[in-house]
Amino acid sequence: MSRDSASRRFPVIITLIVGLMLTIMPLPDAIEAFRPDWLALLMIFWAMQLPRTWSVGSAWVVGIVLDVSYGTLLGQHALALCVITFATVRFHLLMRVFPLSQLSATIFALLALYQFILFWVNGVAAVSAPSVAYWGPVITGTLIWPFFYIFMSGVRYRSRSGA
What we know:
Blueprint: H1 3-24, H2 29-32, H3 38-49, H4 56-70, H5 76-90, H6 92-96, H7 100-124, H8 132-161
Helix pairs in contact: 1-3, 3-5, 4-5, 5-7, 7-8
């Protein structure tokens, strides 16, 4: 791996580690259900910006790490992340030219699909959860997306310019 290639991957790996830490960080019970899906948001962003480098394979690895850290069914989050990452990679050229409001609506649909897949797998495995546990992350993830997108665009710009 060339030095230039490694320097381009470093910011992505760091953001994914920070996203994993934000995902498994304990929160009070009152707001636990409204924790955004940080890794899903990160995988959508990086798959949209760098689709050849960060796509379905990396989503699978991130999902397996998330499954192990949560102690859920192995492959549950990996499957959901792969599906939304595939959709992002498939339509990344279209999504990159969307205005921020339309992109936020698309993110809502992708996060809803992510939670639906988790709901479906939990239903097959007879694991029950309240409905706020599925809709809370979708709503908060959609609400923070514009700020998250602007922040991550700045991170990507600074990493590319070497500043």
